[in-house]
Amino acid sequence: MPIEPGDGVTIHYVGRFEDGSLFDTSRQDVARHEDLITAQGNEPADYAPLSFTVGRGDIIEGIDEALVGMEDGEEKTIEVPPAKAYGEFEAEKLREYDPEAFEEMVGQEPEVGIHVEAKNELHGDVVTVRDDAVQVDFNHELAGRTLVFDIEVIDVR
């Protein structure tokens, strides 16, 4: 029977950018082949099928929509535009802070790559550190990107 909103599903996925480079996967064999397990310090257990309820907003909209009508065992490659994934890149989510104020807020010296969580629950990454300013990007790391997913439905409940 075709998948409908409200059905529980379990899928495997491989997520790539339009240029073919991998950004995420549930498949341990793909992660190992792409050196994600050793390069990022991830464990093999980090790569497992993903289970969720279709239409409940547990996953990005583009995958949710693509699953409707698919069946158990079916495979599909989909292209998900930013609007149905993590949104467009928003320049206003790039914020600058005085280095001393940043250090006081975060509790450590600014350094490019540091991940911070603001009191308003926004998460961001330090992207620039200068003598006069620290720039933090509060956009999702995949914002503004078109994403390509290979999806395999492995269970429908």
Would you write up a description of this structure?
This protein is an alpha+beta fold and 157 residues long. The chain has helices spanning 28-33, 36-39, 61-67, 99-106, and strands at 8-17, 22-25, 50-53, 75-80, 94-97, 115-117, 123-129, 134-137, 147-156. It has two domains: 8-86 and 143-156, Chitinase A, domain 3 (Roll); 91-137, Thrombin, subunit H. Strands 1, 2, 3, 4 and 9 form a five-stranded antiparallel β-sheet that branches. Strands 5-8-7-6 form a four-stranded antiparallel β-sheet. It is elongated, with a radius of gyration of 19 Å.
Spell the H/E element sequence: EEHHEHEEHEEEE
CATH topology of the largest domain: Chitinase A, domain 3
CATH class of the largest domain: Alpha Beta
Number of H- or I-type helical stretches? 4
Label the overall shape.
Answer: elongated
Q: Kindly provide the radius of gyration, computed on alpha-carbon positions and rounded to a whole number of angstroms.
A: 19 Å
Using brief descriptors, characterize the structure shown.
single chain; Thrombin, subunit H; alpha+beta; five-stranded antiparallel beta sheet; 4 helices; 157 residues; four-stranded antiparallel beta sheet; Chitinase A, domain 3
Summarize the structure.
This protein is of the alpha+beta class and 157 residues long. The chain has helices at 28-33, 36-39, 61-67, 99-106, and strands at residues 8-17, 22-25, 50-53, 75-80, 94-97, 115-117, 123-129, 134-137, 147-156.
